[in-house]
Write a structure and sequence with these properties.
By secondary structure, chain A is mainly β. Chain A is built from no helices and eleven strands. In chain A, strand 6 and strand 7 form a beta hairpin. Chain B is mainly β. In chain B, 0% of the residues lie in helices and 53% in strands. In chain B, the strands form two sheets. In chain B, strands 2, 4, 5, 6, 9, 10 and 11 form a seven-stranded mixed β-sheet that branches. In chain B, strands 1-3-8-7 form a four-stranded antiparallel β-sheet, with no helix packed on it. Chain B is globular. The chains are: A mainly beta, B mainly beta.
Amino acid sequence: EDKVVQSPLSLVVHEGDTVTLNCSYEVTNFRSLLWYKQEKKAPTFLFMLTSSGIEKKSGRLSSILDKKELSSILNITATQTGDSAIYLCAVGGGSNYKLTFGKGTLLTVNP
Amino acid sequence: DAGVIQSPRHEVTEMGQEVTLRCKPISGHDYLFWYRQTMMRGLELLIYFNNNVPIDDSGMPEDRFSAKMPNASFSTLKIQPSEPRDSAVYFCASSPRTSGNTGELFFGEGSRLTVL
């Protein structure tokens, strides 16, 4: 069975801190790994990674994939209260070539 | 573009009643997905369509759940009869052909269902 595990499940930091969120997977026929941010409503897309070792960056957020270790990290530097959200990792592949989501990491950034 | 549109946003019903959730995908997107989100199980794929044809419904919990896509701009997810354990947020998402079913999905704002 395809599996995506995120850690930690929750995290509380102060504004300005740097955080690293982890995602590990066991998925056959790997195609892609995606990160989403979910505030109160719909998940919104952050990154899609398909190649190992190539960092994707958007402002204070960055992510990298390690296919050898079957994992990815999402880094957020100089956190702000607006970064408070659930961060979801999803992996595309499996016998049915679909996205399997992890349960998410709840990040709380306090002022 | 208006994005993926779902209705109703909130639904409270009693056990045994029929529930119908609706979705309008982004125009031009070939794929449509129905997901369910709960605290315990996270986001789970229920079913997805490609060009209005159901491709994979292995995530549909049981026969009480059914989904249709009569045309490219409309889909429904029906639960009949509903049970308290069906309480969850139901998301519809769509994606263009270039993303397929393993690329970026565009989510609607969800329908929060409470079954009493």
